Structures are given as C-alpha cells and as structure tokens.
Write the structure tokens for this entry.
Amino acid sequence: MPMMRIFRIMIGGIGCLWACSTLADEGNLSSQLQALLGNTDPTHESWSVHAQATEILQGYPSFPAAYSGTNSLSADAQWKNTTTATLFLGRRLWQGGEVYFNPELYEGKGLSDSFGAAGFPNGEANKAGSWNFKYGDARLFVRQTIGLGGPTEQMDSEQNQLAGDEDISRVTLTAGKFSASDIFDNNSYSHDPRGQFMNWAIMESGAWDYPANARGYTQGIAVEFNQARWALRYGAFLEPKNPNANDLTFHGLNNLGQVAELEERHTWNGNPGKTHFLIFLNRDRGADFSDALGQAGDINASIDSHRHYGNSKYGVAVSAEQQVIENIAAFARLSWNNGVTEDYMFTQVDESAAIGTSIDGKIWGRSGDVAGIAGAINGLSGEQRKAVEEGYMGIMMGDGMLHYAPEVILEAYYALQVTGYATLSPDYQLIVNPAYNADRGPVNIFAARLHMGF
C-alpha cells in the first residue's frame, strides 16, 4: 500500500477520534439530537438519526505456497484497507409504521481483492470494493409492527430502531432493501464485523449462502412473530442473475432465496441465552457440479454453460449463545448445505463449525472494553471438492490445483473503548489451509480497526 495512502488513513482516523472525543466530553449528544429532531419524549421517537464509520487496516507477511492460481490469496506480503461510513435515518409514519434509509459511503478492498479464503478475514470487505469512495443506498425499507396485546417492552433507540413501547406479542413485517442477515442468524457476540469478530466464518453461519448482491444487500420481505420466550421468522429475497453480482433479478420462484428461523430464549443458572434454528432454500442460476463435471474440457466453461434458473441449494444452521457468568459469554455456530450446486452469493463453505467466547472488560476494570477469541473449521462437499481439484474458480477461491484439507481459523480481538463513541481494536487471525489447500499457508493476519458510532 502506498505510504501516502497509509498517511491519509492515519490522519483521517485521528481526526475522527478527536471529533468523537469532543462529543463524548460534551456528554449531551443524545439530548441534543432529540431536541433537534423534535422528539419531546426520547422514549417514544418520531425521528431517529444514528451514524457509524469504520476503518480497517489489515495485512500479513509473506507465507509459504507451493503454487498459486487466479483466485488465490497472494503469497506475498500485503496490506489493504476498507472504509465505510453510514447514516441510519428513521421516521415513524403512523401507528406501528416506520421507514428507514441508510445512505452509505465505502472505499477500499479486501486482501487479494477478497479472494483466497473461504473464511475471509475482513467482514467489511466484499467484491464491490473500490480505491475511490463510492456511494450506495445500503438500506431503504418500511416496517409495520402489529401489536397483539398483553405486556409491553421498551425498545431502545438504536440503528434502524425507533425508541418506543411495543407489545411483546407482536407481528412485524419488513419490506424493501436490506440485508437478510439483519433479521436472521443473529448472535449477540459474533454478528457485527465493525465491533466484534471480523472473519466471515465466525460472524455468520458459513454454510448459509444468504441472498445478497456483491455488497451484501438484497430486496425482499420478512415476517416475524414474536413471543416472550421465542420468535418465528420467514423471509423471501431476490438473488443476482450471476454469482456474487449486483444485478438482483426477479424471475419468480426460480431465482428466490427463502429462509425460516425459530429463535428460543432461556435462562441457565440465572444467565440469559438464545438458540437460533435456521433452514434455507435458494433457487438460482448456480450450476449443478455433477452436470459440469460430466463434461469434457475446461471446468469453468462447463460450469458457465450449465447455469440456468431453478437449480437448488438448501441447508440448515444453528447458532447458540449463552452468558456463562456475569461478563463472560460463549457462542457456537453449526451450518451445512447440500453442496451440489455452486455457492452463489456469500462464500464457498458447505459445512462449518465455530465456537468462541466474549469477555467484558469490567473483569479487569475496563468497563466498555471487550475481548474475544474464537475458532472455526470449514469444509467442502465432495462435488465441489472435485470441481476445485479440476481448476474451478468460484466466488471466493481457485488455486488451479487442490491438496484438500479443512480450512481452520483462529481469531482474537480486543476492542478498546477510546471514548463513548469510539473503539480501537487490534485483531489477529491465523488461517491454516487457506481455501482448503494444504499446499498453501498458514497465514498470520494482523489488523487494526477504528470504529465510531452513535
């Protein structure tokens, strides 16, 4: 990375930290915003404004590799950065009706242009990166909540959530542009790469090929039925015409991602916990590996010729979280898909397991700090493994050859609260057998993350 680019990033980060420190010293940002927006009762907002900015600088020293291919993680030392800045605007329309809009600026690219590892190390990186700032409408959706009576709960003012009372027993409908992972596969300790774990196979269920364009967003609907101890959700979302592309296309049920999830909530020894059970069915243009492998010639040309609407991928995911004792929590993810068609939108994982812990800094007198450590192991189906062995270049990887071994990942981070609005996080990741290839790696990846938000 050019030195001037690193210098610009450092200066920008210092400036943002200074601005956030000034706001934190004033201590009145929330009340000032409420007054500016005309919210006379901050527990029942008519308008909401939140914002975030995240800068991630990530790289590694050179690592051993017997060979490299078109979509390999480069064996040469490299450093890359990603930047996002987002506004979260919300407006109450009528009883239970809300609209949200998230304009976003983004810049930067992932390591090796986000190729070379199924458990990719930067959750802010994607295939739509750019070395110039670009603008995008991350989300634009409406939400209608229908209360069913009974006890209520207070909803806090958060990003894409207006403060107000809601019936605990309720039905919520969401429609428009957003991310499927906004609603599904949530985990309190590993779901947000802007402040928690950054590796794709830890922050999400790796084998859920969730519907999305190259930026991670889609268009669709979701319905949620919430009760005190459980919730049931269903969503249907558009998928792109081509793998990992931006061209979300309506083609009836033959190009649609559907997902259903049951969330149960419990206490164990007085400590809260949750479990999510998720099933999904994607129908899209992902080629069937068995059809492509049966053809002579180049595997990539064969894959391309066998893409047609209506091919199916289905799978399951389980995500569990549990506060073990005060200030210490554990989580785990298990996911699997049938692996007979291409991984089309998220990453090339057909089976995955992850486990980790999150520790609150109150234990050592640093309230607001968080430390986390987690590990994951990813695998490919037999069909996809054969395709990669023959030189298949998928959405995340392609070394030209393959000495198969499970991809193993370790990640540790420490989120240091600098102000009430900013955290600075050093992060370390070890990837063994990147892209399932025992002939490459291991890779030691280091990162610094600056996150600001309110």
Observations:
- The domain at 3-453 is CATH 2.40.160.180 (Porin).
- DSSP finds six helices and 19 strands in the chain.
